[in-house]
């Protein structure tokens, strides 16, 4: 049985997928099919160019708009970058920071990710900070040390009055979009325990209990309930399965069922 009930999050990260038409249709399919009650937060993170189109589709619905990245300055000579204010101007509420694809494919450093976390929070965005170890790090027994470092540096200097706008997503790099290696719900749970312990050290017990910690890595309709049913997993960050409205909605429904089951046993 879960020890507490935190708001469930179901976040779709479309990564660098869809055309403008597909983005519009996908958002429409999700809005039309959604029956999420208040205790489930649903967020869609389309590519930057499609934020306005998707934002239009989400207006008046229960689905929030999020971005996949942000630059840690409010404005200036930063060719090709997008500021927190621009995201807010497009009605974004959330932003993903420190996704493993940006850490490993685009070389983002811990210090840069920390600047993004603080700038986005200070600007008024809600931040989803991603952390996770590579397969090599896991096999080398370094998972806990890697997560400790990512959390300590990522959250360095974040003031406590901003913490209600922060959540953490655990995404083992080896389990993302990977047909060969999948994390089991038990592995995800065990690592969430490590993360919660580290959050307690950094933020104190009260904030650690308040903060939502999500799981991401090959979540799909068939396994979503097993992940969402784990004690300490408060939501899921979905890549591939968020690109089909029916699959994404099935995962949202798994979140609704898990939360209602928890409410009955609380
Ligand atoms: O942001 C989402 C994660 O990278 C998970 O992606 P995936 O569901 O395709 O494994």
TrEMBL record:
The keyword Cytoplasm is annotated on this UniProt entry: yes
Single GO MF descriptor: triose-phosphate isomerase activity
Superkingdom of source: Bacteria
Gene Ontology biological-process entries: gluconeogenesis; glyceraldehyde-3-phosphate biosynthetic process; glycerol catabolic process; glycolytic process
Keywords from the UniProt entry: Cytoplasm, Gluconeogenesis, Glycolysis, Isomerase
CDD domains in UniProt: TIM
Subcellular compartments: Cytoplasm
Residue numbers binding substrate: 13-15, 177, 218, 239-240
Catalytic reaction annotation: D-glyceraldehyde 3-phosphate = dihydroxyacetone phosphate
Pathway assignment: Carbohydrate biosynthesis; gluconeogenesis; Carbohydrate degradation; glycolysis; D-glyceraldehyde 3-phosphate from glycerone phosphate: step 1/1
GO cellular component, one term: cytosol
Functional summary from the UniProt entry: Involved in the gluconeogenesis. Catalyzes stereospecifically the conversion of dihydroxyacetone phosphate (DHAP) to D-glyceraldehyde-3-phosphate (G3P).
HAMAP family: TIM_B
NCBIfam families per record: tim
PANTHER family on file: TRIOSEPHOSPHATE ISOMERASE
Description of how the protein assembles with itself and partners: Homodimer.
Protein known as: Triosephosphate isomerase
Gene that this polypeptide is encoded by: tpiA
């Amino acid at each position: 049985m879960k020890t507490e009930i935190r708001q469930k999050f179901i976040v779709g990260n479309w990564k660098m997928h869809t055309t403008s038409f597909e983005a519009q249709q996908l958002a429409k399919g999700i809005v039309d099919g959604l029956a999420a009650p208040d205790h489930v937060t649903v967020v869609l993170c389309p590519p930057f160019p499609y934020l306005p189109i998707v934002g239009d589709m989400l207006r008046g619905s229960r689905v929030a708009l999020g971005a996949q990245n942000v630059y840690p300055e409010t404005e200036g000579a930063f060719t090709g970058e997008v500021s927190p204010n621009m995201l807010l101007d497009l009605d974004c509420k959330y932003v993903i920071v420190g996704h493993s694809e940006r850490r490993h494919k685009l070389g983002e450093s811990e210090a840069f990710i920390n600047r993004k976390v603080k700038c986005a929070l200070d600007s008024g965005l809600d931040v989803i900070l991603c952390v996770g170890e590579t397969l090599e790090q896991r096999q080398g027994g370094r998972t806990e040390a890697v997560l400790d470092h990512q959390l300590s540096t990522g959250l360095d200097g974040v003031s406590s009055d901003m913490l209600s706008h922060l959540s953490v997503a655990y995404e083992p790099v080896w389990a993302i979009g990977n047909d060969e290696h999948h994390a089991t719900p038990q592995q995800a749970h065990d690592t969430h325990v490590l993360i919660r312990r580290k959050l307690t050290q950094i933020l104190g017990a009260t904030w650690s209990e308040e903060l939502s910690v999500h799981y991401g890595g090959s979540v799909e309709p068939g396994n979503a309930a097993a992940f969402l049913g784990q004690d300490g997993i408060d939501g899921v960050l979905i890549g591939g399965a968020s690109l089909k409205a029916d699959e994404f909605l099935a995962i949202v429904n798994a979140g609704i069922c898990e939360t209602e089951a928890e409410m009955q046993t609380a």
